[in-house]
Amino acid sequence: MASGPSPVADVRVPDTRLAVEATELVRDTTSELVYHHSRRVYLFGALQGRRRALSFDPELLYIGAMFHDLGLGERFRSSGRRFEVDSADEARRFLRSHGVPEDGVRRVWTAIALHTTPGIPAFMEPEVALVTAGVEYDVLGIGYEDVSDADRAAIVALHPRPDFKRRILAAFTEGVRPKPETTFGNVKADVLQHYVPGFERGDFVRTVLDSPWPE
């Protein structure tokens, strides 16, 4: 992996100019909750990559992890687009401004855009698969026993998660509440159904039956 500061759970966080500037941007524009979550996503994703014997670019994985929830921020709440797309577009702008080759830009964009779409990223490029793996580990506990108790404790000691379940669900709610139509067909509809009184989730079958086609 890339050289850098002392490793956490034997995983090094990239310390390239690109990674350092991404860290600063995320720390300046998101909450402490999202910052620590994003760093854990990278670390857990990297550990899952090692366990799966995947060859991945640590820098691209790091950027994907750090930007993946940026679109939950207040300035994106009137965009009318899924927060994953807003997050992915911010990462794309950042990477292009640093001259990153388009293949790398595409991988990061795809990793972020698909991180709440289960069942697909695992079959794509390692960076795409591992952003989702890191998110699923930290938020859903999928593969919890794949990481040793010692490694998990080391990561959480550096990037704590006090009251994380409640706080991350609140962040999801606030991020997508102003644009409920963007939850159609994805996991964030569950969030609004639990936390927003009066929310009515989209119904795929009803949409088909009520389409303008006569038959």
Description:
This protein has ten helices and no strands. The protein has helices at 17-29, 32-51, 58-67, 83-97, 102-113, 126-140, 149-158, 164-176, 188-195, 204-209. The longest helix has 20 residues, at 32-51. The termini are far apart. The model has no long low-confidence stretch (mean pLDDT 96).
Mean pLDDT: 96
Cα-atom radius of gyration: 18 Å
- Number of DSSP strand runs: 0
Q: Separation of termini?
A: 56 Å
Number of helical regions: 10
List SSEs in N-to-C order: HHHHHHHHHH
Helicity, as a percent range = 55-70%
Largest sheet: none
Structural class: mainly alpha
Low-confidence stretches: none
Strand content: under 5%
Global morphology: globular
Pfam families: HD (PF01966)
Protein name: HD domain-containing protein
InterPro entries: HD/PDEase_dom, HD_domain
Domain HD: 34-129
In short:
Helices cover 57% and strands 0% of the residues. The protein is mostly helical.
Per-chain topology:
Blueprint: H1 17-29, H2 32-51, H3 58-67, H4 83-97, H5 102-113, H6 126-140, H7 149-158, H8 164-176, H9 188-195, H10 204-209
Key features of this structure:
HD domain-containing protein, HD/PDEase_dom, 10 helices, 215 residues, single chain, 57% helix
